[in-house]
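Each record in this resource describes a single protein on a pair of labelled lines. The shape at a given residue is found from the number at the same position. The record below illustrates this layout:

***
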Amino acid sequence: MHNAKLKRFIIAQIVFFTGLALVLVGFAFLLGNQGAISQQYVLLAFLFVLSGVGVASFAIKLNKRALYLFFACFSILVGIFLFLSALALLPFSFKQAWPLTAVFSGLALIPAGWRKYKMASIKFIAPSLAFIGLGVCLLIFSFHIVPFKFSQFVLNWWPLLILLAGVLLILLTLGTKTTNEETKL
């Protein structure tokens, strides 16, 4: 009885992923056939989204670690960004917006932390905010919003980086729980 149930579950998973793959491949190539959109670029975006959905499914259904959920969210975000870039819906290229990968990493840490701790934990919120802040800071320089270069900023404001690192470490230590046995050592 248990074997039949497991067999149906595995077959359902295979059918689901095959259907999802066919939908995404058809969508990717449909977009690739429209105008001057590179099919290789669309295929790369498709692979990111498909791998993200696959890893997310395993992370949730098979109750795997939060690390899988992080990689799933990150892959899906990068894939969506690549799709939007391939369709020229974004006014900038990936070459200019590469700091978004740091923002995507920070955003992907949030559901991974929620999955692991079943609540918002400072152990994931602090690094998440740090990655998002770093990505936004690098985007400011990548889009030339400020009139000076990143190297000039670092030379003038390097103490700010030390201050931010200290704040991050303080936030991380405030979020950790210590037991009485640990404090006696």
The chain has a mean pLDDT of 77. DSSP finds seven helices and no strands in the chain. Residues 2-32 form the longest helix (31 residues). The chain has two domains: 1-91, 93-177.
